[in-house]
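Homework-ish question, so no full write-ups if that breaks the rules, but can someone show me the predicted structure for this set?
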Amino acid sequence: MSQKRVFLFREGNATMRDLLGGKGANLAEMTNIGLPVPPGFTITTAVCGEYYQAGKALPHGLLDDMKSAVAEVEQITGRRLGGSEKPLLFSVRSGAKFSMPGMMDTVLNLGLNPQTLEAMVKETGDERFVYDSYRRFIMMFSDVAFGIPKHDFDNEIFQVFKYKVGAKSDLDLTAEHLKEISAQFLAHVKAEVGRDFPTDPWEQLQLAVEAVFRSWNNDRAIFYRRTEKIPDEIGTAVNIQAMVFGNAGDDCGTGVAFTRDPSTGEKSLFGEYLMNAQGEDVVAGVRTPVPISTLQKQNESIYNEFVSVCNKLESHYKDMQDLEFTIEHGKLYMLQCRSGKRTGPAAVRIAVEMVGEGLISKDEAINRVTGSHLDQLLHPRINPDSIPSAILLAKGLAASPGAAVGKVVFDADTAADKGKGGNGDQVILVRDETNPDDVHGMLAAQGVLTARGGKTSHAAVVARGFGIPCVAGAEALEVNATNRQFHVEGHTVKEGDIITLDGSTGNIYFGKLDLIAPEVSGAFGDLMSWADETRRLRVRTNADNPQDAQQALEFGAEGIGLCRTEHMFFDKERLPLVQEMILTKDQGIRDKCLASLLEFQQNDFEGIFRAMGGKPVTIRLIDPPLHEFLPSHEELIRETTELQIKSSTNPHTLAKLNEKLKLLAEVESMKESNPMMGLRGVRLSIIMPGIVVMQTRAILQAAAKLTKEGIAVYPEIMIPLISTVNELKVVQSLLEDTAKKVMAEHGTAVSYQFGTMIEIPRAALTAGEIAEYAQFFSFGTNDLTQMTFGFSRDDAEGKFLTQYVDQKILPTNPFESIDQAGVGRLMKLAVQEGRASREGLKCGICGEHGGDPESVIFCHQIGLDYVSCSPFRVPIARLAAAQAAIRDRMTVTTADK
Amino acid sequence: MSQKRVFLFREGNATMRDLLGGKGANLAEMTNIGLPVPPGFTITTAVCGEYYQAGKALPHGLLDDMKSAVAEVEQITGRRLGGSEKPLLFSVRSGAKFSMPGMMDTVLNLGLNPQTLEAMVKETGDERFVYDSYRRFIMMFSDVAFGIPKHDFDNEIFQVFKYKVGAKSDLDLTAEHLKEISAQFLAHVKAEVGRDFPTDPWEQLQLAVEAVFRSWNNDRAIFYRRTEKIPDEIGTAVNIQAMVFGNAGDDCGTGVAFTRDPSTGEKSLFGEYLMNAQGEDVVAGVRTPVPISTLQKQNESIYNEFVSVCNKLESHYKDMQDLEFTIEHGKLYMLQCRSGKRTGPAAVRIAVEMVGEGLISKDEAINRVTGSHLDQLLHPRINPDSIPSAILLAKGLAASPGAAVGKVVFDADTAADKGKGGNGDQVILVRDETNPDDVHGMLAAQGVLTARGGKTSHAAVVARGFGIPCVAGAEALEVNATNRQFHVEGHTVKEGDIITLDGSTGNIYFGKLDLIAPEVSGAFGDLMSWADETRRLRVRTNADNPQDAQQALEFGAEGIGLCRTEHMFFDKERLPLVQEMILTKDQGIRDKCLASLLEFQQNDFEGIFRAMGGKPVTIRLIDPPLHEFLPSHEELIRETTELQIKSSTNPHTLAKLNEKLKLLAEVESMKESNPMMGLRGVRLSIIMPGIVVMQTRAILQAAAKLTKEGIAVYPEIMIPLISTVNELKVVQSLLEDTAKKVMAEHGTAVSYQFGTMIEIPRAALTAGEIAEYAQFFSFGTNDLTQMTFGFSRDDAEGKFLTQYVDQKILPTNPFESIDQAGVGRLMKLAVQEGRASREGLKCGICGEHGGDPESVIFCHQIGLDYVSCSPFRVPIARLAAAQAAIRDRMTVTTADK
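A: Not a homework solution, just the prediction itself:
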């Protein structure tokens, strides 16, 4: 291959992310716009591909390319790799197209060996600094290149040594101490890998490059990519850059900063730094850094230079930047810049304010905010009324906003087992500090609490990225993960105890506090109003009661797309009536039960119609199989077996046994092998029409009553699980009769429609016929996904779907984001053929996909009229609909050219 | 409406079946080719539609049309309706486009009243004949027009009267007796309906016409249409024809005949007649008729005339005819002709012989034979070896061929409950005689046995039509339906006892005799060879063992389209190994189990490959969920509950309890909500690849061994339940490795292919992608139907599918015949897109639909390469494939014009 493998920073630019990775491209860009960047070069992502294709071997010729690049760096710096005077040291860092913070490997101080150590000591006169750098280098390099855990070095040698010599802080260690530690480190490496630690800087360099490529496929990187949907094929670049030292003395330091506050979005420089430290000390949260504003007092000229760099970068990139910098002997160096991760509230505020500042357009602002940003914004917060009486355990840093309640767990695996994706418990992950191995547990938790680390610690960055509330650095906590408990201010909190976190204040409370929904205004309101001006797709909500309907209206819902009627049957007062209706053979009793249920349902619908005040309400008639309302089959088997044994000795149990046996026989007669595909939905209505006649009567009576009161009502009655138009014909004509009867009885006309769910593949395939009867379509993509894939969601998600996504057999869980090739193809076909048969047929979606941004965009593309989702997803759907419309416009514009 | 409502026979012809019904069209045709047909006219089927559309009222103007038609009949016959001299009497009969024998109503002798009675007596001088006609008229008319059961007249008045006067036969009754009986009949009518029996012949006529229209929608007619797939909308015509009398004296008679033997197809006149009788006496089996050959001796000239009529009709219609005739005072009249119903063997023989006679072409012969004809031909017969030791209970008439074994039942409802479509027991319906109300029970039975009636009795005709073995008129039987038993020659046979019928000999045996498969040769062989020359579609079989494979080869199978591999796992020797493999956590033990299973499976495949000798064999890898191989969950709940109670009093049960609890936990962990859509098929292979690796090894080892022996082997390895191409990629590449390893180990190349089932809607929708990997497609239409409809077959067929077909929500059960609009659309799309991506992709079907003629024709149309079905359906599929090819040719020919 003749492609260029190595790019000096001066040869690249910000558009070359595919080839140079994000970090490399931005180092190049910064170099070219004249910022103080230590010189260096990038080995391309394509080389990573070559490395793997060759069975993990660096390509021939790469070394020569590296040599030329190193020569230029040597020339710029006036230093020499392995030189016995002014030796050149390198940092070696990974850098993929998409940021994967902390997931891959880094080596600092590369190039140190006995010869360069001596030269460095000679040059700096600071033996302590040189050996501190050396012990860091040995540890990082050995971890990365030889797979010897850092923990071996850090805990078993370094901390033990500190204890022995009575050093409280790293700063208490002398040069001699560090020399001794370095020697112990070297010995440990030899014991572990059976070879001496490499002293040839070129060997060090090649081993480090290979290690970075290998780290692309370490477990935590793979896990991160899967979570963030980053393709596996793109590979990582390697950035090799001349070292500058933040730990070379008290006029040195290192820090990270954001050009605006990544938590709130406020337009003010936000960051932290540590004097006399290397970057890893800040990121790992080992020492607690100080705010960037302190720098202003300590060194105003450096501070001013830094502010002007920040401004330059923000107006250059037109986005909030996340920066890494080092100060070496009073000189500022920029080591990294990238678009900063931000919380949802920050994303919205920054996008809206940048429109105000003329930096970006409204369309760009809409595109800058993601569904998960809004999701965070809409997180619940603690009800202030509940705070005065709450037990405040401690206060940490407000690291990721939103409030969370959950049971305490002490490790990531337990969190993953019990939390989201596991048992579904609400859990709070409590750790001393987190590291990349903890991410899967953080994702499963409602919230994260750490005892150590700052706002830019791993825990804080990851939690913000995923919109999980986080309190970091709550130093009062003594976490004892082994005993599964933590102590704080005289309290002991054990695993399983419930706590409440406030990620916006840093407060930690004992027990469960009342959470309330967020208010939505300000920048959020502006953004949403721009989205509403932009989008074509309407957004409705799924709501089964007036409270949810009200909540959804506040979030901008334009109607109800799915009101399930059977949830109401599970109410404690009603369930006995439902059971009696199902079990009786006496039509008289059945009619009486239905009459009682009619009253309840009519009240339900009145409430919802009132709440929606004139907006359309789509009501789905009964869907689940009737046995869902009856006692458990297994429980009855247990009970009857028990009673059978007992009744041989106790005649009094015989009557009870007979009753239970009768019930068991009933339940057995209704049992189904595959209830998902059994007697439910419209099938039930055909076999037992009494229930849907009652429901239709309840809907129309409620509507007629409100119509008389002058309240506008638009019920859309939806018949579920149609697989052939004839089912619709039969049921719809029966219900039309009921509707007409009710209107005649009340002497009032009601505007209503009958429509159907499209949730069975055959319904999609025969949509043309179905549209001759149905006045609207609503895609039930949950069932449609089940049938199209032949996946029972209940079984698949526990048994094989996770593995399918892990193994890339499926790109994502199709129950979360619409499978466009299969399910989507059926939807598109149904819309086209439905509208060919009934012009302007209203089409919507009411499956859970209606709140998934990718799916919303797809719904826009195939021409649906609306999506419907849970109340809290309504703003997300509004935003995604706007993004879809913008994408359309861009396509049109491109096509016009 | 201006359409002609009434057609005189001279105005119609045989092509007008839609309008005039089959009977009317043929009466017209016979009239116009000069045969002796009593004059009359037909009221069209369109009037039946008008009648129902008007809410059951005859249209205005119809009476005038009828008056003109009657006037012409009066003119031809020289008689007058209601005339006081030479009165004209009419028969009024239904007649739909498709024959529905005995399903609708008939009235004979219409026009009798006090005045015409007197005139008839005067004219014939035979008072007994006239009143015999009158009492029949009153009974039939009252049954039909007023709904008074015939049974009332026949049992409660007529038989009582006979007993009182000591008459053994109807012929013992005098004219006075019949007058008295008629008077009692008239009194009964008045008592029942509160009005006098109508005396105005025009009122009689209108009431009779309305009654015939009404009878279109009686229960048995509706049931018959559903069974025979006759549309409800087509309605019936009414044929009004001048009466001729078979019961006017000893030179009179009436009979039915077939131009060839409808049981065997032999080219000789076959029929029965009764002298001095009306047609109903023959059909109802009340008196036992004599063979048509007797007529030759009794009246040679009439017989010769009849033979020449038969020859004329057969060469005119080019098909075997079913005729009704009457002889009135030595003159022959033809009352009906139609294509005769025939047994399967007869259909084949007649078709083949007519080709030999130059009457029809080979294509026509192929089209004349149906799948159910062949099905009968392939019916099993009694093993002759088992006959010598069998207990022969009695001998009846060989009314419908084939042998049947089953439990005796005494009424149609019980037969329907217990038999096919019910519990699935094998039952024999035993009745004195059958009537149209019994048809649903006959359909559910393996065979039918009656104590009364001839070969043209209801039981015989219906059984032949449906291919059910039948012994009729076994007069030695004393059937006591009330006590659920019959007596014969000193034996008492009770409900539930097993008997064996031989419908080809009329023998009835006690107990279960050994049945063997039919031999296939002669006419069947000729027809099949023509079919094979004609068809494009290949026919394979579904077979899991060498015996089935052998049977299928004899029936002409060209390969195996589906060999299920998991059936072999249920073998007594292997199941414990399978269970251990599933339950163990120890990989070593699992590998050992798999190694043992490998040996078994290799032997299975060797046997099948040997049997198929070089023909392709498609082997499906494991498909069902593993929990199918484990003990029942419910049973374990019962056992553990029991043990739990007992172990409190008996410590010895504790160990057993613990073991069972462990097993229960395992079974519970594998339990699924919807196993049909759970962890099975390829999903299982991805999660637990050991099993399919073992199976692939077994297939390749067997193939390699036989290849070395010089036996050709073409295994096609089929991966089930694919929903995305990635599943195939993962599993196929794993198995390719195994295959290559085995070939290397054996040093032999084997020709094999990997392909996939298309049985999930998404697989069909993404067939283009899948075909990039799959070397063949096989449609699994059972699952594809389940997923496309969202119907779990296990649940649907018991819970709603019957009702769906009854209510015409579905035209047929989609598990029996492919749903072309939904499932078929997916299949067509998959074939097209699969072949677009892989040219000439081999496509077949292995669902049960492969043996359904309509489905086979559809498979031909969408371009499949083969169908696969159970061994006994192979000839049916070959025939249907030929019919499909002929249909194609005809379409092409038409298009060429």
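Now go work out the reasoning yourself. Hint: The two ends of chain A are 35 Å apart (CA to CA).
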